Amino acid sequence: MDSHSESTEITTILATEDLLKERQTTHGHYSDHAKITQDLKDVMHLSFGWDCLTVTQKESLEMIVHKIGRILAGNPNHADHWDDIAGYAKLWNYSANTRTEERLATSTEIKSLPATRSGADLIMPPSEFSKLSDMQ
């Protein structure tokens, strides 16, 4: 390795270490954040409604919980955490209005199929489940 490559590698390592130190002040200790976030995700995954969500709803909730973990483990006054939570909720709303996934889930052909809890997110959105119980 030449001296330029070594210098670049050392600079990269130092920059990464500085970034990690800075992030710890806003995000908290990584192990604390991981524990809080995984515990919250476990609660979500075990809830009855989890299997009724679309993949975009699940991902948005997981990212929101990730940001909540940063708030609880780190600096709760760091505005980016709160802005990110609002952003992921808005992103789902945008996605739901523009993506084929949600439009397909409300088509007549798919709605006529019987919904099962384990595959419900592939068949219809949660708003359609109340209509099923009304038909029985």
Quick structural summary:
The protein has 136 residues and is an all-alpha fold.
Helix and strand layout, with pairings?
Elements (H helix, E strand, L loop, with lengths): L2 H25 L2 H17 L8 H19 L5 H20 L1 H6 L2 H4 L8 H4 L5 H7 L1
Helix pairs in contact: 2-3, 3-4
Overview of the structural elements:
By secondary structure, the chain is mainly α. It has one domain. The protein has helices spanning 3-27, 30-46, 55-73, 79-98, 100-105, 108-111, 120-123, 129-135. Helix 2 (30-46) runs antiparallel to helix 3 and helix 3 (55-73) packs antiparallel against helix 4 (79-98). The longest helix is centred in the N-terminal third of the chain and has 25 residues, at 3-27. The model is unreliable at 108-124 (pLDDT under 50).
Core attributes:
136 residues, mainly alpha, 0% strand, elongated
